[in-house]
Write a structure and sequence with these properties.
Length: 210
């Protein structure tokens, strides 16, 4: 996709989703980290409900590791995949205590080094909690970016690399939220191309929807 079209697509998305931002509730980088781990294949609304209770007592890595895994699993049960999510939360918390004195690091490589923290989660925390430029690729971003043609890749890592190449760095973080909003509202699994304001720039529309 040509640079001018990338800019136009992002400008249009920005005009229809001017307030695109994370919908997870958090009061610290640690709370955001836990919320993002919980949000895998779960709605932000559900995660906020669970963390509203969880963070009343367990809002630091030190407090979190006091919880037995089974107890944590019970608290986060409704977020789904509770066994793995509890394991990841506890192992990330241990890692933060052992390697970073109990504080979530603001460095991308250090975030990615945390046990239990995947690349997407690290990118979201880096971008949202620390205000740095990063593009986290979740299922919405992957689907929408590859349909539009902002990336042409078969896996999330290549998609992230191509998005970083094609989108100006200062727009990386906002673009992540714009693509999520577009994926939730119009470019759903079954896309609503007829009402899509960027269809004339979209590869998928040009190739399949006419
Ligand atoms: S035209 Fe269709 S496939 Fe392309 S971004 Fe819009 S909804 Fe998605």
């Amino acid at each position: 996709m040509e640079k001018k079209d990338v800019k136009t697509v992002l400008d249009i998305l920005n005009s229809i989703y001017p307030n695109a931002q994370p919908e997870l509730n958090y009061n610290s980088p640690y709370e955001l980290l836990v919320a993002v781990i919980l949000s895998a294949q779960c709605t932000d609304k559900r995660v906020n409900k669970v963390t509203n209770e969880l963070f009343k007592e367990y809002n630091t890595p030190f407090k979190m590791v006091e919880l037995a895994q089974e107890k944590l699993e019970k608290i986060i049960f409704s977020c789904g995949f509770y066994h793995n999510k509890a394991k990841h939360i506890l192992s990330a918390s241990q890692s933060i205590i052992q390697n970073f004195g109990g504080k979530v690091p603001g460095d991308l490589e250090q975030l990615r080094s945390l046990s239990g923290v995947g690349r997407k989660t690290a990118n979201v925390v880096y971008s949202v909690a620390f205000g740095k430029n990063a593009i986290a690729v979740d299922t919405h971003v992957f689907r929408v970016a590859n349909r539009i043609g902002l990336a042409v890749a078969k896996d999330v890592l290549k998609t992230e690399m191509q998005l970083m190449e094609n989108i100006p760095e200062k727009r990386w973080s906002k673009s992540h939220h714009l693509l999520i909003y577009h994926g939730r509202n119009i470019c759903k699994a079954k896309p609503l191309c007829g009402v899509c304001p960027i269809k004339e720039y979209c590869n998928y529309y040009k190739n399949f929807s006419k």
